[in-house]
Amino acid sequence: MRAPTRAVTFWILAATILPAHAFADEAEAHYRMCMAHKKSGKVNDAERECQIAIVARPTHAAAHYTLATLQRQQGRLDQALASFRKVRELEPLNALGWAGEGAVLLRLDKSEQAIIVLRQAVALDPKDSVSASNLGNALRKQGRPDEAVELYRKALEKDKDNPELLNNLAVALRAQNKNDEAIKMLSRALAKRPNDPALSGNVAKALRAEKRYGDAIAYYEVALKGNAKDPGLWFDVAYCYEQTGQKEKALDAYRHHLALVRATDPRGAAHVQEVIEKLEATK
Prior knowledge:
Elements: H1 6-17, H2 26-39, H3 43-56, H4 61-73, H5 77-90, H6 95-107, H7 111-124, H8 129-141, H9 145-158, H10 163-175, H11 179-192, H12 197-209, H13 213-226, H14 231-243, H15 247-261, H16 266-281
Helix pairs in contact: 2-3, 3-4, 4-5, 4-6, 5-6, 6-7, 6-8, 7-8, 8-9, 8-10, 9-10, 10-11, 11-12, 12-13, 13-14, 14-15, 15-16
């Protein structure tokens, strides 16, 4: 049997001496470490490994995407925006880069730009209910509730029980003064997320708009359990108590509202103080 050549002998010896990861793709190895750190909640370590993976392979789209999500998670939105744009530059037919950029633009209150980007995300992945929801939200922020309603309805055809879509559709319907239909959508959402404070708050507002004060109170009370520092909820439930003749509860709720706004809204606080004094005078 012929002896192995010098080159082959080197590789045989190397394989017995060097660890297996020495021959692995460096970028991929660091990316796997990044994902492991991310899964265990070690955000800084995950970001560091992602950055190393990108240096090793600048075209590693998955690493750019993961880095973008980490930056967004930490509130570094401008950096996240740049990273998401890099993803769609590398993979223009991948909906994830467009979806991520659109979501960040929306958080930056750049709804006009978000609409353009999110339309592309939805076109590339029609089943992406998150992007559809974000696109609808951007349209609402631009004062286009009719378009938002149409979009939400279309998205719900593919994901009929999605609570976020149902809630957002309800908000858009309320902008069209269609409170009855909004309440129906929110009831469907609550069936999926019973006692959800945000959903309950939106139901309460729709019922209040229809002057169904007694019905609204129960939903306001659920909403306040999840967000007791929301002055708007306290004012609204106080008004509902007042309209249903529950003066003591109304006064208590108005006082909660007053305590929350006194330092930040002196004019509003003065108005609520007048309301309290008038209500006290009728006791």
